[in-house]
Amino acid sequence: MGDRELLAERFEQNRSHLRAVAYRLLGSVNDADDAVQETWLRLSRSDAGEIANLGAWLTTVVARVCLDMLRSSRLRREELVEDPVPEELTGADGDPEHDAVLADSISSALLVVLEALTPAERVAFVLHDMFDLEFDEIAPIVGRSSEAARQLASRARRRVRGASMDADRDRARHREIVDAFLAASRGGDFAALVAILDPNVVLCADAAAVQAAAARQAQGAPKLAPETRGANEVAEVFAGRAKGAQPALLDGAFGAVWVYGGQPRGAFRFAIAGGRIARIDILTEPAALEQLHIEVLDRAQD
Question: What does DSSP assign to residue 106?
């Protein structure tokens, strides 16, 4: 095996770690891959024989590449909002509990606070709090003293904690809205339903749901169209219905499901904005349900 092949093999041994670092700094899988590729190019142009600790050298270089990308504003805002985390980026040490903590950190730090942090704050926070680098190692990457790097991470940490508290409050409020919707629907409280729905709410139902509703119309079920708009119109569909629906998390967001024979047979997926339900998707197609990660929750007391 030649020197270049050996170097490539050693780089591949560090690739997953480098992608994890880059993803946490950039919040985008595509940009993380670009940063890792640039790191390889810099390594291939370097005198590898002079590198005492390849892992540390690569971590430093990928962090500097990410910092340059952040400072040059190459990231697009929309890429930082919904970029799913690949399984190999969920953690660096393989510990499930640690991975869960990091997943929360990614969600709050990168997807909520990312644009509020300066590039240097972001790098100091991620490298220290997520990858346990010492501030002496972080200082040359951000071009500050060790104490200044410590202060950067401290400021970022305070912002992350504040954003996490806001996110927790939003989740609690969303659960309240879903519970109130289900209670009003089961109780046939038309006025309460209208109050929970955005005036321009959109209800979308898949083909299987529309067909099932049509088959039940003889028993008094409301007509269900593929798309229904307006609070009054959507409330008419749900008033006195949803009796078997249970609150649930659908891909981590609050919604509802109805279960028969131990299997989910349908789901309500809600989009909530401004404290009201702005969109409802009724999903009953087996293929669509199989793609959802569903966690049934305890039913709230009406």
Answer: I
Q: Which is more confidently placed, 259 or 191?
A: 191
pLDDT digits (tens, 9 = 90+) for 38-72: 999 999 888 877 888 998 999 999 999 999 888 87
Q: Which amino acid is at 193?
A: L
Residue with the two structure tokens 């959507």: 234
Rg of the chain, C-alpha, whole Å: 25
Global model pTM greater than 0.70: no
Q: Is 2 exposed, middle or buried (0-12, 13-18, 19+ CB in 10 A)?
A: exposed
169-296 CATH = 3.10.450.50
Q: What CA–CA distances, in Å, run from 276 to 129, 181, 202, 206, 249?
A: 36, 10, 12, 22, 18
Cross-strand partners of 277: 197, 272
- Determine contact, residues 281/268, Cβ cutoff 8 Å: yes
Rounded Cα distance, 194 and 190, in Å:
6
Distance CA 234, CA 198 (A): 10
Judge contact between 72 and 16, C-beta under 8 A: no
Longest dimension (CA), the chain: 81
- Which amino acid, one-letter code, is at 146? S
Task: Give, for 272, the enclosing helix (H) or strand (E).
Answer: strand 263-273
Report the run of H or E that residue 249 belongs to, with start and end: strand 246-250
- Alpha-helical (H) ranges within the chain are 3-26, 29-44, 54-71, 96-105, 111, 119-125, 135-142, 146-187, 190-196, 207-216, 231-238, 286-290
- Under CATH, what is the fold of the domain 3-144? Butyryl-CoA Dehydrogenase, subunit A; domain 3 (1.20.140)
* Domain range summary for the chain, segments of one domain joined by +: 3-144, 169-296
The 3-state DSSP class for residue 87 equals helix
- The whole-number pLDDT of residue 34 equals 92
Q: What are phi and psi of 198, to 5 degrees?
A: -65, 145
Count of beta carbons in the 10 Å neighbourhood of residue 145: 13
